[in-house]
Amino acid sequence: MSEKKPRVVCYLNQFFGQIGGEDKADTPPHIEMKAVGPAGALDTELGDVANVVATVICGDNYINEKDKAYSQVADLINSAEPDLVVAGPAFNAGRYGMACAKACEVAGEELNIPAVSGMYEENPGLDPAKRYAYIVPTPDSAAGMRKALPQMAGLITKILKNEELGPPEEEGYFPRGQRKTLFADKRGSLRAVEMLLKRLAGEDIETELPMPVFDEVEPAPAVREINKSTVALVSSGGIVPAKNPDSIESASATKYGRYSLKGHNDMRQLDYRSIHGGYDSVYANEDGNRVVPLDVMRELEERGEVGKLHDYYYVTTGTGTSVANAKKMGEDIAQELKDSGVQAVILTST
Amino acid sequence: MKLEIGEVQIEDIKLGEQTKIEDGLLHVSRAELRKLLLEDKRLAAVEMTVARPGDKTRIIPVKDVIEPRVRLDNEITGYPGVTDKMGRVGAGRTLALKGAAVVTTGDIVAIQEGLIDMWGEGAKYTPFSQTCNLVLTFTPRRNLEAHQHEEAVREAGLKAAEYLGKAAENMEPDNINTYDLPAMNKRGEEVEGLPRVAYLKMLIAQGLLHDSYIYGIDAKETLPTWIHPNEILDGALVSGNCVAACDKITTYQHQNNSIILDLYDRHGKDLNFLGVVLTPELTTFTGKVRACEHATGLIKTMGADGVIISEEGYGNPDSDLLQNCKLLEEDGIKTVLITDECAGNDGFSQSLADTSSVAKAVISTGNVSHMVKLDPAERVIGNIGSLANLAGGSGDSFCDDGSIVCELNAIIGSTSEIGYHNLTARQY
Amino acid sequence: MAKEIDRIGIPVVQLCSITTIARSVGANRIVPAIAIPYPAGDPELEGSEERDLRKELVKRCLTALESDVETVTEF
User: Most buried of A8, A67, A187, B309, CB within 10 angstroms?
Assistant: First the structure.
């Protein structure tokens, strides 16, 4: 049985795709069933490992400005049935970098296949792309092409041969922000003692966990008249109907629930319980208002201090829940709240 | 204070008529142990099962693990303030049944308990796949309230460990480890010029089902306290935790605290081990501020140059961990933190719930949400269905072929933040 | 979660105990709560006192929602 050579599809912009310069940056995407420009050089580098079967070319402005561009590019890439997507290299070209990030996202999110790219460390496309792609560091201009392609080919070879990739600094790609769980040679306590002794001796140490950096969000403007506004209750306290109908996890949640408060004045009237795994749920089970303050919200609503309590409350569990999942759930909940005309939110967290 | 822990190696456990140790085989009298454990009327029944390393056995949901021991030179033979009267422990000779453990299971007490696999992939992640385990499956009296249930099972596990330990009372240990840490003013020139190192041990103290006990006091009722490391090794600390299995410190891990053991190893050679400060991880902001200020205050007063800080749990305790770090580093005391990570199933999420730029030296013990697939077991002790409710498990955990998929969260001791295990995580 | 609600333009107040965490992760309007297992209550108090306490906390949340803030603010 002869093995089929893996198929690689390259994504290039108008310039590297040999259509033209800035004046062609509005060109919609198209596909050529051959290796164009640097894709050809990459194909040579890959030798027997894989074939570059197609090149998708799109103008930098088009892909960054047109909403439909992403799905167009996705369809084109998909049509060539790739095993791996290569984007760029984009060097320090910002719009091209962002375009490559989209091509990498297509590979990761839509096709669930690996992607490889090359960028200069300050390219704004690096951050959105690295989650989906192994990105080789390149110089800031296309003069680095000759160096970048063999490096990219090296990574592609390992990936397509299913060899396990080592850590970024060994393999020569930008760290992707992924935390991988491994077995160390020594137990944690011994590593800690050794790290401390090094610090005390004034030697350099390398932390095993660089501190996370959280992004900042502009505060939304205040509500003008809360007594005329719809206010929703949202909680990460895990109070759900007793049977947990949506199977929300007790920790590391990926799901949230939306439950009706219509006609209810007190959490204690509802057969609800806490499924939260991170705190002692006895107090919450005794009186759910301690986590979801329904009773006083109803009272304030009746007295006209709150316009209206939204008919539904949203809930998940916030223990061990990854920031990424919390963000995803937060986005979905925010959208639903907005669509149902909610004007302000009280979020209780445990 | 000088403690000798004599090790009596146990190769296997056998249930039978009389409790005794012969040629590394621990015989356990089923009837006698049952009678002892069911003296507590809160417990209706107990089943006993032996799980050996390599058995295709899964134990779930595990509440605590305890090392069977006997104290020889102290009239307190049990756990002071918990199963025995009050008094100080940590000096004299104690015998430990090495290679054996008591594992408590049964009806789930709360949703954060875990599993032990004795073989295969799962065994790699838990240290208790390497011990020969006497598994006690408890059925509580009907309608027993959760906190009572927890206490009854906690005490029963400790009593069983004490009972088994007594079988070694008259035995010669196979080897003896000596832990000798004299008073500060009695330390000789062996520690002169060595950096002064303390250990700050954080304990979950978040409500009756998420608690640790120091000489029987619920840690959340305490101010941070200095304690001699020997006291911890000798049973002053007991786990009453139903917190996430992966990083709760079982009683066994208190008895064998790897940070204390590794610091002892370097004491008088590379460092001067000042001792341990225990501090509760509380649920109120005021409580957190008080505990962090007081714990770090003690360490400053001790004149430490460096401190290892271990966390228990994740989420809100991340904030205590970083606050402790900050208060010490601001005073020029160098810290190393040990924590696990909540980086999501794919490892792409931020690892901690809090952040601080001063935390520059951190040991990671792995991602609690790392997914593992575990083969079907030939024998399940306890109740596999409980996995649906455990932290790290869900209704989707069960595969058609009988194997299970869960996060490390659900595996006892996998991401131990006292660094008891080898797991780590790194940036890819 | 608070951040995503803020991001979409709906003002949100987070009632939470461990305000340092809320600050670190970037919540903007914060009301300090009682304790982790019962942010909006206190089992130590009598029924009506506990309810009064909860009302006070919720009212503080409403004040926060009616206040324009530029950066993280505790109410």
Answer: B309
